[in-house]
TrEMBL record:
Lipid bilayer topology: Peripheral membrane protein
Hexokinase N-terminal domain: residues covered: 22-75, 86-174, 426-621
Domain Hexokinase C-terminal: 181-414, 627-861
EC number assigned by the record: 2.7.1.1
Transmembrane segments: none
Subcellular location(s) of the protein: Cytoplasm, Cytosol; Mitochondrion outer membrane
This protein's record includes keyword DNA damage: no
Molecular function via GO: ATP binding; D-glucose binding; fructokinase activity; glucokinase activity
Coiled coil: none
GO cellular component: cytosol; mitochondrial outer membrane
GO biological process: glucose metabolic process; glycolytic process; intracellular glucose homeostasis
Keyword Lyase annotated: no
Protein's UniProt name: Hexokinase-2
């Protein structure tokens, strides 16, 4: 009995002596809590740096967005995900009887990739001893796709590129909804977690959360961990495939722990502290001690026996003291690994708690990796240190039973659902994408309608009315005098005094704007014109001109049939006007009668002018090549100078006359029904003039926002927008004004700002919703610009052919808020004209107040021509 106690005492003393010897030799590998808290703070700083757009390039912790935005909810969505070579994939599919079946695939790729979307990732660098050439800095999904194309029996869609750490988190989150962190401690090491979108500068949007792949293995590559790295860490790093990189991983992961132990044992042997100073060739050989050996040597009961066996296999003759010392070396190396991992994980948990603004956080960490799984002491050590470093976090550690494959499959399943939704959205957007063939068809049909409108026999059937304006001349610079101009074309009415100086092309204008209330717009004609005359009286008083009888040009931006320059019979109201007893009446006579009823002043009404004609005239004052006027604003219209010989509605063949096309009615006979969508029809049916102005309803600012609203309602009904909830505001006609399209489509506008605009409209949108809304706006406005361009191409080609020119040079005067304010409308319109009329060199000139200045110029030209005829 005494002998047993003596042996036990001897062994205990021996063990203590060996442990002290190793502790003295490796004192710098033992990390205090103070040091761990400091490392934790350094890691937090690197995380913040990695999340910033400007600071990310210099961050050692890369914080890569994964575009995984949702944690599984257990709803039963499943996909198919794994990583392997394509030959292996082909064999697997053959074995499982899956050949020629089209399946969604998730690619688990356990290397750092920069992703811009879920199904794409550019490899930043190889790790874990991988060095395959020609892959770094390329999209690995594209590489896999190319490889799969060489196997004709593989038919899969790669929908998601998933880091193994993310897969681990998703796998565990399926079983535990509190899981929002994934950690792998195996051959390599990494962590991911769910970060608030508002903190991620690298990705647009602030709604919800996104999984961040920290790629923490590179922590310290900037020198931040130099104070805790040992000579053994540096020697191991120098002998690796990637010196100076993945320094944190080289202190933690299973790929390197065994090698660290070998380097330590070799130095201790050289110092005579082990094996009697003897060294074997195996101990000198890199890679001879692996992490599985470290785990075996640290087993609780059989650890010493395992140690002796492993050392003997290395050609050494260890004593009992050697075995105890080597076992303790393994403990220090693996304990340091667990401590470092715990410090970084504690930093992530602290960030999660602070993001949620909680005093105490309850969360689950999904764990995987061979080191964590096979090492007998590692999990317990890690858990204990984490809980000590973050006492205000209740942490559950959940081992991933299916590795990362199950998680990748779930990400793929979500991606498959998103892809299906995307296809539904694309089907809607495709309705607004016009092919070259369709645009040529619109151009040809517009040309045919122009010809019908000019001919006496077919004019009554034409949808493009081609109304003569009796404006037969352009300004020549001799015009001078004071003129009044009236501008009626929308919800505002303007009165202007225009002073023109002869010879200097100088025009000065004074104006006042008056509102036209809805009850006046849709009341009686007498009420409307009495209101107009009241506004004129106010302006004359304001300008001190009550007694002056000035020549006046009346810009009346509605379809009129003119018998002379000062007579215009209203064909029909547009733009929301519905005043009664006006259609079929001469608007100049109605204005004169209203002036008589007021009996305060008299005016010389010289010309009734369409705003499009005014636009052309304004630009023609500056550029003699200007023979076309285009309005792309609340309404849409075009005028141009036509050869008199082609205008059968007016006597005479000499010279030219401006034709007001009133092209907004194009298609009212059904000729463009093939490109009209259900949304166009809904907008038309809900308008004040169903069945009329169909082209205008597809191209003008008054209707584009309403088309967008109808699309958004449909997509929401399908569950593709706004969480499937149609708000009362979205149900409100006219809420989506065209100015919002211009704002939303601005290239300078981030998705966050798009969301704010939608919130102003009462639409509670996610970032994904904002992207779709932006696409819808783009599709609707692009089609509008293309249709407008196709119509204009028909006009310029007609002018070229009428003049018998091989090449035409012509200027188009343009006005209208859609053309001026929309970020892309003018460019797309111009590109369309260039494509459809390649033999016409078209210059676009912005008009400065065509409806005011233009009306005065037309009046001035008319006065000049009247004087010339008198003489």
């Amino acid at each position: 009995m005494f002998a047993v106690h003596l042996m036990a005492f001897y062994f205990t003393k021996l063990k203590e002596d060996q442990i002290k010897k190793v502790d003295r030799f490796l004192y710098h590998m033992r990390l205090s809590d103070e040091t761990l808290l400091d490392i934790m703070a350094r890691f937090q700083a690197e995380m913040q740096k990695g999340l910033g757009k400007d600071t990310n390039p210099t961050a050692s912790v890369k914080m890569l967005p994964t575009f995984v935005r949702a944690i599984p909810d257990g709803s039963g969505e499943w996909g198919w995900g794994f990583l392997n070579q394509t030959d292996c994939l082909a064999d697997f599919m053959n074995t499982k009887g899956l050949k020629h079946k089209r399946l969604p695939l998730g690619l688990t790729f356990s290397f750092p990739c920069r992703q811009t979307k879920l199904e794409e990732g550019v490899l930043l660098s190889w790790t874990k001893k991988f060095k395959a050439r020609g892959v770094q800095d390329t999209d690995v999904v594209s590489c896999l796709t190319r490889a799969m194309k060489r196997h004709k029996d593989i038919n899969v869609d790669t929908l998601a590129l998933v880091n193994d750490t993310v897969g681990t988190m998703m796998t565990c989150a399926y079983d535990d909804p509190y899981c929002e962190v994934g950690v792998i401690i195996g051959t390599g090491t990494n962590a991911c977690y769910m970060e608030d979108m508002s903190n991620i500068d690298l990705v647009e949007g602030d709604e919800g959360r996104m999984c961040i792949n920290t790629e923490w293995g590179a922590f310290g590559d900037d020198g931040a961990l130099e104070d805790i790295r040992t000579e053994f860490d540096r020697e191991l790093d120098l002998g690796s495939l990637n010196p100076g990189k993945q320094l944190f991983e080289k202190m933690i992961s299973g790929l390197y722990l065994g090698e660290l132990v070998r380097l330590i044992l070799l130095k201790m042997a050289k110092a005579g502290l082990l094996f009697g100073g003897e060294k074997s060739s195996a101990l000198h050989t890199k890679g001879k001690i692996e992490t599985r050996h470290v785990a075996a040597m640290e087993k609780y009961k059989e650890g010493l026996a395992n140690t002796r066996e492993i050392l003997t296999d290395l050609g050494l003759e260890p004593s009992e003291a050697d075995c105890i010392a080597v076992q303790h070396v393994c403990t220090i190396v693996s304990f340091r690994s667990a401590n470092l991992c715990a410090a970084a994980l504690a930093a992530i948990l602290t960030r999660l708690r602070e993001n949620k603004k909680l005093v105490r956080l309850r969360t689950t960490v999904g764990m995987d990796g061979t080191l964590y799984k096979i090492h007998p002491q590692y999990p317990k050590r890690l858990h204990k240190v984490v809980r000590r470093l973050v006492p205000n976090c209740d942490v559950r550690f959940l081992l991933s039973e299916s590795g990362s494959a199950k998680g990748a499959a779930m990400v793929t399943a979500v991606a498959s659902r998103v892809q299906a939704q995307r296809k539904q959205i694309d089907l809607v957007l495709a309705l607004f994408r016009l092919t070259q063939e369709q645009l040529v068809g619109v151009q040809d049909k517009m040309r045919a309608e122009l010809e019908y409108g000019l001919k006496r026999d077919t004019h009554s059937l034409a949808t493009v009315k081609m109304l003569p304006t009796y404006v037969c001349g352009m300004p020549d610079g001799t015009e001078k005098g004071k003129f009044l101009a009236l501008d009626l074309g929308g919800t505002n009415f303007r009165v202007l005094l225009v002073k023109i100086r002869s010879g200097r092309r100088s025009v000065r204008m004074y104006n006042k704007i008056f509102a036209i209330p809805l009850e006046i717009m849709q009341g009686t004609g007498e009420e409307l014109f009495d209101h107009i005359v009241q506004c004129i009286a106010d302006f004359l008083d304001y300008m001190g001109l009550k007694g002056a009888q000035l020549p006046l040009g009346f810009t009346f931006s509605f379809p009129c049939r003119q018998a002379s320059i000062d007579k215009g019979t209203l064909i029909g109201w547009t733009k929301g006007f519905k005043a009664t007893d006006c259609e079929g009446e001469d608007v100049v006579d109605m204005l004169r009668e209203a002036i008589k009823r007021r009996n305060e002043f008299d005016l010389d009404i010289v010309a009734v002018v369409n705003d499009t004609v005014g636009t052309m005239m304004t630009c023609g004052y500056e550029d003699p090549n200007c023979e076309i006027g285009l309005i792309a604003g609340t309404g849409s219209n075009l005028c141009y100078m036509e050869e008199m010989r082609n205008i059968e509605l007016v006597e005479g063949d000499e010279g030219k006359m401006c034709i007001n096309t009133e092209w907004g009615g194009f298609g009212d006979n059904g000729c463009i029904d093939d490109i009209r969508t259900q949304y166009d029809k809904e907008v038309d049916e809900g308008s004040l003039n169903p069945g009329k102005q169909r082209y205008e309803k597809m191209t003008s600012g008054m209707y584009l926002g309403e088309i967008v609203r109808q699309i958004l309602i449909d997509l929401t009904k399908q569950g593709l927008l706004f969480r499937g909830q149609i708000s009362e505001r979205l149900r409100t006609r006219g809420i989506f004004e065209t100015k919002f399209l211009s704002q939303i489509e601005s290239d300078r506008l981030a998705l966050l700002q798009v969301r704010r605009i939608l919130q102003q409209l009462g639409l509670d949108s996610t970032c994904e919703d904002s992207i779709v809304v932006k696409e819808v706006c783009g599709a609707v406005s692009r089609r509008a610009a293309q249709l407008c361009g196709a119509g204009l191409a028909a006009i310029v080609e007609k002018r070229r052919e009428d003049q018998g020119l091989e090449r035409l040079r012509i200027t188009v005067g343009v006005d209208g808020t859609l053309y001026k304010l929309h970020p892309h409308f003018s460019r797309i319109l111009q590109e369309t004209v260039k494509e459809l009329a390649p033999r016409c060199d078209v210059t676009f000139m912005l008009s400065e107040d065509g409806s005011g200045k233009g009306a005065a110029l037309i009046t001035a030209v008319a006065k000049r021509l009247q004087q010339a005829w008198k003489n």
